[in-house]
Structure formats: structure tokens, C-alpha cells
Amino acid sequence: MELLNNLALGFSVAFTLQNVLYALGGAILGTLIGVLPGLGPVATIAMLLPSIYALDATPALIMLAGIYYGAQYGGSTTAILINVPGESASVVTALDGYQMARKGRAGSALAAAGLGSFFAGTVATLVLAAFAPPLTELAFKFGPAEYFSLMVLGLIGAVVLASGSLIKAIAMILLGLLIGQINTDVISGVPRYSFDIPELTDGIGFVAIAMGVFGFGEIILNLGRPAEAREVFTKDVKGLWPTKRDFLDAYPAVLRGTALGSILGVLPGGGALLASFAAYTLEKKTKGRPDEVPFGQGNIRGVAGPESANNAGAQTSFVPMLTLGIPPNPVMALMVGAMTIKGIQPGPQVMTSNPDLFWGLIASMWIGNLMLIILNLPLIGIWIKLLTVPYRFLYPAILSFCCIGLYTLNNNNFDVFMAAAFGVVGVVFYRLGCEPAPLLLGFILGPMMEENLRRALLLSRGDWTTFLSRPLSATLLIASLLLIVIVMLPGIKKQREQAFQEAD
Amino acid sequence: MKIKSEKDFWSGVMFIAIGLGFAWGATNYSFGSAARPGPAYFPFGLGILLALLGAIVLLKSLLAGSRGGDKIEPWPWKPWLVILGAVVMFGFALPRLGMIVTLPLLIGVASLASGEFRIKEVVINAVVLTLGCWLVFIKGLSLTIPLWPTFLA
Q1: Which of A103, A139, B41, B61 is 20 to 30 A from B9 via CA?
Q2: Tens digits of residue pLDDT in B85-128
Q3: What is the predicted pLDDT for the residue at A233?
Q4: What is the ipTM of this complex?
């Protein structure tokens, strides 16, 4: 079977000592970061991008992938233990997980999260391996019009993730697209919006934006809160293994979460965050044992479902990135950046031109998941120790790494200043209730969208109906329209607001 | 007219200003035609679209909002200025003074923002972090970062 041959190739690449070590390193680093509040996978991958110059493409991507799913695990650990979600996808885990910890059942919650995530990761790896080749076939049928429409769908999908107003989120995407226009026009070679600053003719680095808005912005906002609100505390975790009853309660939730997460991850704009929210809603709707603990008071299904879903979603969100070269979320956008740094143009040709990279990456995800479960369950005590580090020590460290990372990007202090400017803008965004994540996505996709739009118009001799007369392109555009309509429907709108309010 | 949502009102103003700014800037470049779109084609369209959405956000903020007027939370002036000031200073100083001086400077200044500044802790933090960054970035990853001030090298 082809699937098995491909996976065998992948495992032969992933099981080399070097790649196993990079997967392990990435997983540890990711867990470390997931545990630290206020430092998400986006900022970390951005920070580490310069360091991959020295690595080959395959170990570099394996390490970055390890950071990504490691952060998912780490984030859930703090969400359960101290009610501080280390990153956005584990926000819902905190709802029931922390309540379980308060009742002295932290061990069961952590084990349910860990084992559920491992199961979900295994299934999602298979989904990824099975679905990537047919999707790649489809991708070769894509012309500029289809790519443009697909990116529209991806950006609209990302809007569903934003917690605030729909119009403001779309406006943020447009703003991101516009910031992406500060560059040299690829077709005519005219520098745009550069104000005669030579560095701006190459465009603004997305690392500078990500670090300015997410890294610096978050530190500033954290410091703006009263000191008590940032204090963290620890608790002893005893009795790691769940009871038989926990197990019986949790496994259907794990199955549902895995299925939901795998599907939502593949959709553009999906990924871990959407998956975990959807899984929590699903668990709440599903009837459990009559005498079970209510949701919000420590129901194990409320931990197992979303945790499995977010891990599955994190994994399958590699599908659109690897097959189409289109990043479905900011982390994947950074992965695309990393591939470009290594001279690989992301897209359907990666699977044929770099099969060992493609399948090695997929296989290493499963290995990484296995490592994480080994790493996380026995070593939870160590991760908690990290939380006793007071914020006044933590943020100067984050700041130092960010600044050095920014400088080494181009060995130039321009990116440092640019990030500081985006630090100013970032705080404004937060205070005005404008979500910055869609902006980053728009920024990444902007140049690609423009190029494909102009190519499509060139091919159709200026006929805009080309986007609707080509069936694939029309389907994608109709899907994006449907997505907007669905989100705008009063019932769904209310539910969406509710889901996000619960997260606060 | 009374503003119902302060956040949305100013978001709208921001989107309109930026959208029009980009659209106006695009007029400096060639538009081309629909069949041969020039460099101004895409940003002009996007800018106008952003300004339109901004106008909708602004209008809605005058009509509907939460009861409290959806006020903007107070700006975090002190950490804002101190942290970004420290970053800008880092950018200026690193090529001239090297990491050995700049990093402790960054950490020292940034620590002022926390409101729990203790000189002994800050010194320890600065020494540990500078040493750690030297080990990781210069020794470990062999990145080219100026280490010593230029007048010593």
C-alpha cells in the first residue's frame, strides 16, 4: 500500500538520531513555552526562526513542529493546575480542568488531557498521511483564480476565530493585507509605500510584527494590570492515574474530540483554537451519565474532549499548509516562512520534490507526541516549578530573547525599531478590541493574494467573472459567502458569543 | 450625537484613516487597466474597502453598544513607554556598545516597569540572562552579534 510505503519512508527519516533529538528538543521547548503564560507558540517560533539558518530544512521543520504541538500540551498543564491557559487553545480546558484540580483531581485531569491528546495526535497523523496526497492532486488543478478564492475562504474562516465583532475582524484582515503591500511590486518592480527607506522596499518582516504585537504588546498589558492579577501559585499534584470510572467517562469524549478536531483542522482558518471551542460545546450538548459532575464544576469530559480536539486540530492544520502552501493560522504562516528561509517553496510540489521532508515531518509528529506523553506525565512537577518564577524575572528574559532574535534576523537594528513601532500599535489594537491575529494572517497572505489576483485578471483579459465561471473557484467563493452567512445567523451568533464569553 | 461604543468609534476612525491613507498613497503608482493591473490596483481597492468597513463600524458605534458605553480601558502609559523605550535603546546601543553592555541596560530599564524594582534582583537577573544569551546565541548558535563595545574591539 502506498500509504504504508510513504509512512515507512517517513519513519526512516524521522527515526535518525539527529531528527529524534530535534523533535525532542522542539517538544521540550514547546512545553516550556506553553507553560509560560504570555509567551505563545507564535512568538516563540518567530523568535527561533533566525536560529534555523544553521539547520537543514528537515530537522528545522521537525523542531518547529515540535514546538507547536509541545505548546499545546504545556498550555493545558497550566490551564489545569493554576487556571492560567498558557496559550489560547487551552482556554476552555481551564474551565473544567481547574475545577478538577481544586477538588484534588489534578492528576486525573492531567492524565485525561495527556492521554487524550496522544490518542488524537496518533489519529490525526494518519489523517494527515491519508489526505495529503489526494489534496495535493487537487492542488495541481489550481490556477491563480482558484488560489485567490481559496485564500479568501481561508481569511474568512479565520474571522470565525476572532472573538469580537465580525466587521472589525474583517477590517483587521484588510489592514494586514495593506501592510503586506509595503514592498516592491513583484510584477512591475515599483517600490510601494517605502518613503525612500531602503529596508522598507523588502517589506516589513512578519517576525517584527508578530513580536511587536504579540510579544511586546502582551508584556505591556500584563504589566499594566495590578501585581496581584499576575501572581501565580502552585499546588501539589498527587495521584496521577485516573480511576476506571474516569476512563469510562473520558474515552467517548476523546473519540468525539478527535473526530471534530481532525475535520476542523483541515479547514482553512481552522486549527486548534476553533477545534477546542467546538469540542467543548459538543460535550456540553452530549448527554453523559445521569449522576456526572455538571460542566464548569470539574467534569472530566470537559477536559478530555477539547484537549483531544485541539491536538488533532493542531496536527491536521498542517494539511493545507503542506499541500497548498496556504497557512490556515499564524503558526502555520510562520512555518511557511521557515520553509521559504530554507529555499523550499511551500505548495503541492513539496510532496514530490522533497518526499523525505514531507513524510519525515509527518512521522516525526507521531514520535513527538509519544515523547510528549513520556515527558509530560512524569515531569509535571518540574513544569510547575517554572511557574514559581515571578513575572518580574520572567518578562525581562522574554524581552531579551525577543530583542536579540529581532536583531539577528537581518543583523540590523531596523527590525528592532519596527517591532517597537508595532508594540505601540499592538496595545492600541488590544484596547480598541481589535483582534490582532487576523491581521497577521492577512499580512502573510497579502502578497500571494495580490499576485494571484493580478495573474488571474491578466489571463482572463480583465474579466472579473473568471472567479465565478471557473467551477472550483466559484465553489470556494460560495463556501466563504456561506461561512459569513452562517456566522451572521442570529442563533449561531449568540452561541459564538456565549462560547467566547465562557472563555474569559 | 452620543457615542454608544467608545471602542468601536475609535476603531472606525482608525480604519477610515488608514484605509484612506493607503488609497491616497496608491495614487502615486500606476493603476494599469483591468486586463493589465498595475501596482496601485490592489492597494487602492483594499484601502477604499477598509475605509468603507471603518465607516460601518463607526456608524454602528453611534447606534448600538453595551450600556456602559463600552469605554476604552485606561492606557498602560508607564509600561508602554518604559518597555518600548528600552527596546528602542537596545536597537541603538547594540551595534555600538555590544551585547555585554546593551543587554544589562535593557534588563535594567525594562525592570523599572514592574513596580517591584529591587536592585539586587535586577543585577542577578541581568548577569544570568546576559551569560545565558551569550552561551545560547553566540556560543551555541554562533550568530553574529556584536559582543564588546566598538571602542574596545
Answers
A1: B41
A2: 999 999 988 888 888 889 999 998 888 888 777 888 888 888 99
A3: 45
A4: 0.89
Chain A residues in contact with B94 (beta carbon < 8 A)? 403, 407, 413, 416
For B:100-139, CB contacts with A below 8 A are 103, 106-107, 110-111, 113-116, 121, 125-126, 129, 133, 137
Is residue B151 one of the residues assigned to a domain? Answer: no
A39-58 residues touching B, CB cutoff 8 A: 50-51, 54
Contacts 24+ apart (CB under 8 A), A408-413: A408/A50, A408/B137, A408/B143, A408/B144, A408/B145, A409/A49, A409/A50, A409/A205, A409/A207, A409/A208, A410/A205, A411/B144, A412/A199, A413/B91, A413/B92, A413/B94, A413/B95
pLDDT for B14: 93
Query: Sign (positive/negative) of CA torsion A13, A18, A20, A22?
Result: negative
The packing angle between helices B99-111 and A391-410, to 10°, is 140
How big is the CA angle at A229 (ends A223 and A235), to the nearest 5 degrees? 125
Sequence-ordered strand ranges (E) for A67-169: none
* Assigned domain for B19 exists: yes
| Domain shared by B98 and B134, yes or no | yes
Q: Give the A window 431-450 contacts with B, CB below 8 Å.
A: 431-434, 449-450
Domain that holds residue B106: 77-140
Instruction: Examine the fold and report which residue of B63, B91, B112 is the final residue of a domain before the chain moves on.
Output: B63
* Least confident span in A143-152, A165-174, A233-242, A247-256: A233-242
> Could B129 and A396 be called an inter-chain contact, meaning their C-beta atoms sit closer than 8 Å?
yes
Question: Is any Cβ of chain A less than 8 angstroms from the Cβ of B31?
Answer: no
List the grid coordinates of B34: 483591468
Between CA A210 and CA A426 the distance in angstroms is: 10
Put simply, the chain B residues between 49 and 78 with a CB less than 8 A from any chain A CB are: 49-50, 53-54, 56-57, 60, 70, 72-76, 78
Q: How far is Cα of residue A43 from the mean position of the Cα atoms in its chain?
A: 11
> What's the grid cell of residue A409?
534576523
Query: Tens of pLDDT along A161-218?
Result: 555 677 888 898 899 889 988 888 777 777 888 777 777 777 787 778 877 887 788 7
How many contacts (CB atoms, under 8 Å) link A and B? 193
A220:B46 CB<8 A: no
User: Would an 8 Å CB–CB cutoff place B33 in contact with chain A?
Assistant: yes
What does the mean pLDDT of chain A come to? 78
Between chains, do B10 and A404 touch, taking CB under 8 Å as contact?
no
